[in-house]
Structures are given as structure tokens and as C-alpha cells.
Amino acid sequence: LVSSLYERTDDVVAKAVIGSPGASVARDLRCVICLYGTQAQWRLLTESPSRHSWERGRAHARCGVTWCSSRIELGDVTPHNIKQLKRLNQVIFPVSYNDKFYKDVLEVGELAKLAYFNDIAVGAVCCRVDHSQNQKRLYIMTLGCLAPYRRLGIGTKMLNHVLNICEKDGTFDNIYLHVQISNESAIDFYRKFGFEIIETKKNYYKRIEPADAHVLQKNLKISSPGQNADVLKSEN
């Protein structure tokens, strides 16, 4: 793989010659550039085909993109940037979301945020409030960021934002989400924050494999005996 990225003041031009191995790296780069155009700030990069070092600031990140800083911020989802959220979700997730999803996202306020890395929108989190079995629950509908920006603390920033909302509110019983059973990195990520697998739903996803999903949950209040069983019963 040989990748060349050119920086201009008013435009970004990318040229990738795809070989093997490394095609997925070039594909991720093209996704970022396609999504953000002039928002992306790239420097000329030449790299050995056998060595794909990803650097941020002093030394980490991915894909050979060198960052001069590492500012992570969260911003509101508005009618003006909702299309950006749609594009991000199309790249990040293997499932698609309908117009009602995005209409509802515009109504949840602080429960939906775009994540910015050095002023570039690279991820998002979208949640909703659920009421079931006399419980107030927060459901994480989506939380993710573009592959080249993972392991930089962006997911942690988004999840902490959601957890802080629950803590300040003080009335949520738990927070939960669905994760594809093959997504081990996501499962490990949520476990670090105290989430546990409480159920596995068969054939939860349509048109993707594997179709099964784990339900991960973090309890925010001490549950009474049998309460979790009632919640699981209501979801089936």
C-alpha cells in the first residue's frame, strides 16, 4: 500500500494506490476524506508498504496521520448538521437507521451529541429514555466513531457524557444497549465502565451476520430481588 495525502489551504486531495495487505487502511482514509472534504487537515505522508504506523501528537493513533493537538469536544445535534450524523452512522455501523430515528434524535437534547476531534466530526452518541416495569432506563441507541479515530479517548468522552447525565438526574435505574455478539472490542469497552451482559437476543439484527446481540446493562440503583428478571421478561 502506498498512500499520499496532500494538504492545501482550500482543498484536500487524496490519492491511494491500493495493494495487499492494507486495503482496509486506505478505505478508511477515503471515508474520512469523503465525509469531511476541506474540514480535514492532512500533511504529506509517505510510508513503507510493510509498516503502517499511526501517529498522534508524540506517538500514537493510527494511519500515519500526525496530529498537532488532541482536542476532543462534544457538540449538539441540530437540523443544520443532522446530515453529518447520517453520514457518520452509514460509515460506522453495519445497520441503517430510518428517518424517524433522526427525527427523534433532534428531540432528545443532551442525549445526542456529535464528537469532534480537532474540530472534525468523527463520531456520535444517540440515546433515548425508556420507561418499563416501573423503571426509568437510558438506552444507548448508537455510540461510535470512525475507525481511524478509535482508541483516542473519543468513545470514553461520549460514554462519560451519558453517564454524567444519568448521575446528575439521579432517577435512572440503569443504562443499557445492544451489541453484536462478535464485537468483542465494544463488549470489553463497556465492561470497563461496569456494564454486564444480562441477556443474548437471538436474531436481533436483520440482514447482517452474526444476527445475535448481547444486552449490556449498567445498574445505577440497587435492584430489588427479581427486578432484573422482570425487565428481561418485558423485553422479550
Produce the secondary structure layout.
Blueprint: E1 2-7, E2 12-17, H1 23-36, E3 72-76, H2 82-92, H3 99-105, E4 112-117, E5 120-132, E6 135-145, H4 154-169, E7 174-180, H5 184-191, E8 196-201, E9 213-219, H6 227-235
Parallel strand pairs: 6-7
Antiparallel strand pairs: 1-2, 3-4, 4-5, 5-6, 7-9, 8-9
What does this structure look like?
The protein is an alpha+beta fold and 236 residues long. It has a domain at 72-219: Gcn5-related N-acetyltransferase (GNAT) (Aminopeptidase, 3-Layer(aba) Sandwich), CATH 3.40.630.30. It is 28% helix and 28% strand. It is built from 6 helices and 9 strands; from the N terminus they run E-E-H-E-H-H-E-E-E-H-E-H-E-E-H. The strands form 2 sheets. The chain has a 7-stranded mixed beta sheet, with helices on both faces. The protein has a two-stranded antiparallel sheet with strand order 1-2. A hairpin with a 4-residue loop joins strand 1 and strand 2. The longest helix has 16 residues, at 154-169. The protein is globular. It starts with a strand and ends with a helix. Mean pLDDT is 76; it is low at 1-68.
Give a short synopsis of this structure.
GO terms for molecular function: protein N-terminal-methionine acetyltransferase activity. Pfam families: Acetyltransf_1 (PF00583). It is built from six helices and nine strands.
- Spatially, the strands of the biggest sheet line up as 3-4-5-6-7-9-8
Total DSSP E strands: 9
- Shape assignment: globular
Number of helices: 6
Distance between the termini: 47 Å
Strand residues, percent: 25-35%
CATH second-level architecture of the domain at 72-219: 3-Layer(aba) Sandwich
CATH superfamily of the domain at 72-219: Gcn5-related N-acetyltransferase (GNAT)
Given the helix and strand composition, which structural class is it?
alpha+beta
CATH topology of the domain at 72-219: Aminopeptidase
Mean pLDDT across the residues is 76
Task: Report helical residue fraction.
Answer: 25-40%
Query: What does the main sheet amount to?
Result: 7 strands, mixed
- Rg over CA atoms, rounded to whole Å, is 20 Å
Low-confidence segments, given as residue ranges, are: 1-68
H/E order of the elements?
EEHEHHEEEHEHEEH
